[in-house]
Amino acid sequence: MKFRVLRVLFFVGFILFAPRVWSQNPQVNPASVDVNQMSDEQIKKMLAEMEKRGLGVEEAIALARAKGATQQQIDQMRRRIEALKWSSRGDSTLMKGIEEEELLNKEEEFSQKAEFELEEEEEELNVFGFQFFNTENLSFAPNVNVPVSDNYALGNGDEVVINVYGASQQTYTLQVERNGMIQIPDLGPVHVGGLPFKEVVSRIQKRLVSIYNGMQGEHPNTFAEVSLGQLKGINVNVIGEVYVPGTYTLPATASAFNALYLAGGPNSTGSFRRIDVIRDGVIYRSIDVYSYLIDGITDDNVQLRDMDVVLVRPYGLRVSVGGEFKRQGVYEAKEGEKVSDLIRYAGGFAEKAYTHRVDLYRNNSRTLSFKDVVADDFDRVVLQSGDSLVAGVIADRFDNRVSVEGAVYRPGDYELNDGGLLSDLLDRAEGVKEEAFLERGVITRKKKDMSMETISFSVKDVLAGKADVELQREDRVQISSIFEMREARTVEVFGEVQFQGTYAFSEHMLLKDLIFQAGGFKENADVSGIEVARRLSYDEASQLGSQLLHTYQFSVDRDLKLADEDANFELMPFDHVYIRQAPGFRPQGTVMLEGEVKYAGVYGITRKQERLSEVIKRAGWVTPEAYVRGASLRRKVELSEAEYEARVELAKRDTTLDEEDVKKIDYTVVGIQLDEILQQPGGDKDIFVEDGDQILIPSRMQTVKVSGAVLSPVALTCRKGLRLKNYIYQSGGFADDAKKSKTYVLYANGTTSATKGVLFWRKYPRIEPGCEIIVPAKPEVDKAAAATRWMAFASTLASLITAVAVATR
């Protein structure tokens, strides 16, 4: 498995020397870059980035040298930088003219890290501490802006700044020479090489007294401040079990973690618990990375010195933890560490862990062994390499839980105390409710073999103190209510009330009470014949008989007053009350008149058998422009439940249809001859109108439409004397697949007339203005199937003839 092991930050040096080359090839060797080919603009951008990150030229060059830059390239770069600074004198900033947006883009480019990808075992990712030096979010790039400590030892190339102020003022910027000396003008050499910074400050101040008399005495008037300027880079060797061992040039303020970060940290066999910093041939400090990772202690992250060696040794012991620990994985242990130490490294037990014992699997070099480690031995059992520690899960059971359900005020789970009684549990549940069924309660109990048993008790006796039951863990107490012990008692009302339906029954419920709850009577209710249907009693139903119900008739006025003899009639559970419609009531019906009438619009139906001619008469008769023979009537038809469901299903399958547009009401066309109706009102053809009828009387029509199996379906001008075939010919004639004998005419009033055959002659329907001639097409015939049928018929016929011939011999 490939993964990212190390990201080295090349934000200075020769990544900056050739940003274009690097963007094309991240594996470019800095030693191959030609410094003389770099533009002044590139040098300026490099210096701006160095200034932004607080790096001096010497520190940047030291880092470049560590990455493989040659001395010749470094000298060339130094000359380019000095020449650029000289040519830029008088300018307030070296970066004048560089766009701010370009700087922001370069900052992201300079912060890119080179990635080294190695093939490793997947287990390596689980080693605790491995990601510490290989994470994108935690960087140990050297920080050159932190002040040096008092113990920092000065070396060749370090810059010492002496600021004299007070009565005398002078500033010295001196560099430590190879012999460890600095040359103070008018004073001579002062040895500072290898000395701690604190001692250097004291030595310089003592020497300055000889040329600045104002620094002496109890009341000096001259003072001196010693600080460090540019520091030399230090060379550190990182060796041992690291991913990228080698010599690294770092800033003087670099720490051990900085060097380890650049080297990629310990590899698959490297130790996180013993990393030695060797100084002057002896071990100066042994670093335990776990101290930082577990406790956040940074005491071991010592500041490095020139020629220090960071040695990562092979790991000693590795053990793994699994199960219910907060941090699972592989951990490194030191000699003598115990199970308790490993539990601490793993963050402790998880929430559902069984903490009284852990499972220890041990490698005995030949075989495996298993050991139970109880909690008292966590501090005694010493870890060995290859150990595996597993924490189990607590058992899914309760030792002291009981529950109560049903008709109590506080149902739920309760703690079971030693010797806990049922009466105590009911008291803690704040007692039973008023509707509790007191004759019997049930305790469901788990036996020792986990089978179930039922224990019944009298709730009334327990509450009275006459009996009690000692509870056991996981007992479940069930107390029912009287309503749960019987069928739900209801009454129902049907018919002409505001809200018919089912209502809860209550004792002493009167008929008028139920009607009141149902919102009272509708206007069309017949209050003189209210009927109550009552089912047979238990005693009556226990005997065989033909009677099914008892019925009662009542008369109630609209003020919900019963007659005197019926006033005390009480309803019983499951009674059905029927309020019927008044015999003379009919819902108001309407008819819609459209088209060529004097007063088009909606008209109410005044009586049961009102005829079509009467409605037209009320509308002021037809207008002179009306085409009476083309009048049509659309009548409302209510779909059956099956038809409605079929249309809904069709709308679900057909995306062009909307389910919301599917109505339970449809319309059908009723063929009428309005011209004959108006000539003979009240005749057989003068039909009765119905609620929802829509009558359309069109204006005069002048066209005839030809459609179906003709060569050119078209609408033609209707002319007197032309027959059906004339219109067919004007539309191009019959098509090849036309079924001529089935040609029919659809008239404007909704009626149709079909072609009739007389011997070899056909009698076509008459043509009127506004009609449509429809020529149906012949159904498609599968010729292959037809041929197969004829062949089968011929074969059968041949077999039959053969059989007859044989039989007649």
Low-confidence stretches: 1-28, 89-123
Which range does the strand content fall in? 25-35%
What general outline do the C-alpha atoms trace?
A: elongated
Find the structural class using helix and strand composition. Answer: alpha+beta
Mean pLDDT over the full residue set: 79
Q: How many E-type strands?
A: 39
Largest sheet: 5 strands, mixed
Give the oligomeric state: single chain
Distance between the termini: 93 Å
Helix content: 10-25%
Give Rg in angstroms: 54 Å
Across the major sheet, the strand order is: 9-8-12-10-11
Q: Please tally the helical runs, counting DSSP H or I stretches of 4 or more residues.
A: 19
Could you explain how this protein is built, in words?
- Strand 28 and strand 29 (601-604) form a beta hairpin.
- The chain is 22% helix and 27% strand.
- Residues 1-28 and 89-123 have low confidence and may be disordered.
- 24% of the residues are buried.
- The strands form 10 sheets. A 5-stranded mixed beta sheet has the order 9-8-12-10-11. Strands 14-13-17-15-16 form a 5-stranded mixed beta sheet, covered by helices on one side. Strands 19-18-22-20-21 form a 5-stranded mixed beta sheet.
- It has 809 residues and is α+β, with helices and mostly antiparallel strands.
Distinctive features:
five-stranded mixed beta sheet; alpha+beta; 809 residues; 39 strands; single chain
